[in-house]
Write a structure and sequence with these properties.
- Belongs to the class-III pyridoxal-phosphate-dependent aminotransferase family. HemL subfamily.
- Pfam families: Aminotran_3 (PF00202).
- The chain is α/β, with parallel strands linked by helices and about 425 residues long.
- It has 2 domains: about 5-70 and about 320-425, Alpha-Beta Complex (Aspartate Aminotransferase, domain 1); about 70-320, Type I PLP-dependent aspartate aminotransferase-like (Major domain) (Aspartate Aminotransferase, domain 2, 3-Layer(aba) Sandwich).
- The chain is built from 15 helices and 14 strands.
- Helix 2 packs antiparallel against helix 11 (about 305-320), helix 3 (about 90-105) packs parallel to helix 11 and helix 12 (about 320-345) runs parallel beside helix 15.
- The longest helix has 23 residues, at about 320-345.
- It is globular, with a radius of gyration of 21 Å.
- It binds 4'-deoxy-4'-aminopyridoxal-5'-phosphate.
- 4'-deoxy-4'-aminopyridoxal-5'-phosphate (PMP) binds next to helix 4.
Length: about 425
C-alpha cells in the first residue's frame, strides 16, 4: 500500500501544526506509523490522499450513523447554504431542532445548542454549579468529556492515549473541585459523598463509556446513581455525546430506562457538522442566560448550516426506528464473527459490545472500569491496528476508544472486515 502523499503531507503538517494534527489521537502516536490523510468519504469507505480506500469503523468518531456523505444530509447542507452561512440571530430551524430533541431524549425539556461536545459539558457543569450553589463534582476515571480544564483529570480518549490524563496547564485550584470515582462502583461514590458532605453539585459520566474503550454499566449501576443523586440533591449528568441517538433514539438513557437531570449531546445532532448541545429539566435549564443568571453564549451557536444537517439527520432517525435494528444487527454480526475467530485461534481477548459500538481489548481479564481497561497490551493493539490498516480496515488508532458502526456496512463488507480481522490476529501472534 502506497502512502507517499500522506507521508509528505504529515512532514509538512508538522512544520505548521503542533504534532501535525488538529486533534492528538489522529497522529497515530499510540499505534506507530504515520497518519493517513483523508481526501474524501462515501458510504462505508474513506479514501486517502494516495487513492487507497478503507472500510470505516470509526465514522468520524460516531456521527456518521448512516455512513459518509449521505445524499440527504448533503442536499440539506447545500440548500441551507443558498440562504447564507451564519446570521448570529435566531432562526426557525433552531426552534424545530430543539422541539425535536426534547421529543426524542427523555431527560431533555429544554436545550441549548453549542459548537462541540467540549462546550456542552463545560456549560452543563457550570449550570449544575450555579443551580445547586455547590462547587465540586464527581467524574469517573477514564471518562472523557472534552478538553475543558476541570475534565482533564484522569481523562480517557486521546488524553490517556498520549499519556496525559492529567494535563499540565490545569491549575491545582481547578483540579481540586473534580473528584474521581472508578466507573461501576457505587461504594466509591458513597465514600466521596461522606467525605464532602453537601459540597457536590453534580455527577457526570458517560452512561456507557467509550473513551477507555467500550465498557458497559453493571446491572443496577445507573439506577443506583439516580437514587443517590435524588437523595443528595445532586444533578446527574449523562454525557451522551457518543451514545446519544446511537444506542437508541433517546440514547443510553432510553435504553437503560434511567433519566438523568441533564444531558450533553454532540456529533450526531450536527449530522457531522460541528455541533454540541446540553439540555435537561426546565427548572435547571431556565438558570441559563438570558432566562437565568448562568452565562453561556456562542457566535456560531445554532449555525444555520449545522442545524439543517442535524435536523435532517434527527428527523430521519426519529421516523425510521429500523435504523436501530439495522445497527444492532450489524453490531452483533461483527462481534459474533470476531468471537468465532478468537475461539478458532485459541485467543481469549475481551470483547465489549453494545449495539453498534464495540472494543476488542488485548487482555483476557474482564474490562469494567479504567483500571481493568489498562490491563490491555497496547503494543499488541498497535500491531493489530497496523495489520488491519494494511488490509483496508480503518480502526480507531488507540486501544482506549470504541468503534462506531454505520448502517452502510453490507453483508459483503462485514465479511471483508471479519476475514481481515482473523488474518490480522493470526499475523500478530
Ligand atoms: N464527551 C464525550 C463522551 C466525548 O466522547 C467527546 C469527544 N469524543 C466529548 C465529550 C468532546 O466532544 P468534542 O470533541 O466535540 O469537543
Amino acid at each position: 500500500m502506497q502512502i507517499t502523499n500522506s507521508k509528505n503531507l504529515f512532514e509538512k503538517a508538522q512544520r505548521f501544526i503542533p504534532g501535525g494534527v488538529n486533534s492528538p489521537v489522529r497522529a497515530f502516536r499510540a499505534v506507530g506509523g504515520d497518519p493517513i490523510f483523508i481526501q474524501k468519504a462515501e458510504g462505508a469507505h474513506i479514501f486517502d490522499e494516495d487513492g487507497n480506500a478503507y472500510i470505516e469503523l470509526i465514522n468520524s468518531w460516531g456521527p456518521m450513523i448512516l455512513g459518509h456523505n449521505h445524499p440527504m444530509i448533503r442536499e440539506a447542507v447545500i440548500k441551507a447554504m443558498e440562504n447564507g452561512t451564519s446570521f448570529g440571530a435566531p432562526t426557525a430551524k433552531e426552534v424545530e431542532i430543539a422541539e425535536l430533541i426534547t421529543s426524542m431524549v427523555p431527560s431533555v425539556e429544554k436545550v441549548r445548542m453549542v459548537n462541540s461536545g467540549t462546550e456542552a459539558t463545560m456549560s452543563a457543569i457550570r449550570v449544575a454549579r450555579g443551580f445547586t450553589g455547590r462547587d465540586k463534582f464527581i467524574k469517573m476515571e477514564g471518562h472523557y468529556h472534552g478538553h475543558g480544564d476541570s475534565f482533564l483529570i484522569s481523562a480517557g480518549s486521546g488524553a490517556i492515549t498520549m499519556g496525559n490524563p492529567d494535563s499540565p496547564g490545569v491549575t491545582k485550584g481547578t483540579a481540586k473541585d473534580t473528584l474521581l470515582a472508578p466507573y461501576n462502583d457505587l461504594n466509591a461514590i458513597e465514600a466521596l459523598l461522606a467525605a464532602n458532605p453537601g459540597e457536590i453539585a453534580a455527577i457526570i459520566l458517560e452512561p456507557v463509556p467509550g473513551n477507555m474503550g467500550l465498557v458497559t454499566p453493571k446491572e443496577g449501576y445507573l439506577e443506583g446513581l439516580r437514587k443517590i443523586c435524588d437523595r443528595e440533591g445532586i444533578i446527574l449528568i449523562f454525557d451522551e455525546v457518543m451514545t446519544g441517538f446511537r444506542l437508541a433514539k433517546g440514547g443510553a438513557q432510553e435504553l437503560f430506562g434511567v433519566t438523568p437531570d441533564m444531558t450533553t449531546l454532540g456529533k450526531i445532532i450536527g449530522g457531522g457538522l460541528p455541533v454540541g448541545a446540553y439540555g435537561g429539566k426546565k427548572e435547571i435549564m431556565d438558570f441559563v442566560s438570558p432566562a437565568g443568571p448562568v452565562y453561556q453564549a456562542g457566535t456560531l451557536s445554532g449555525n444555520p448550516i449545522a442545524m439543517a444537517a442535524g435536523l435532517t439527520m434527527l428527523n430521519y432517525l426519529n421516523e425510521h426506528p429500523e435504523v436501530y435494528e439495522a445497527l444492532n444487527s450489524i453490531g452483533s454480526q461483527i462481534v459474533t464473527g470476531i468471537k468465532n475467530s478468537l475461539i478458532k485461534l485459541g485467543l481469549n481477548y475481551t470483547l465489549n459490545h453494545l449495539g453498534s459500538m464495540y472494543s476488542l481489548f488485548f487482555t483476557d481479564k474482564e474490562v469494567f472500569d479504567f483500571a481493568s481497561a489498562k490491563h490491555s497490551n497496547t503494543a499488541l493493539f498497535g500491531k493489530y491496528f497496523q495489520a488491519m490498516l494494511q488490509k483496508g480496515i480503518y480502526l480507531a488508532p488507540s486501544q482506549f476508544e470504541s468503534l462506531f458502526l454505520s448502517t452502510s456496512l453490507s453483508h459483503d463488507l462485514i465479511d471483508q472486515i471479519l476475514q481481515a480481522n482473523e488474518s490480522a490476529l493470526k499475523e500478530i501472534h
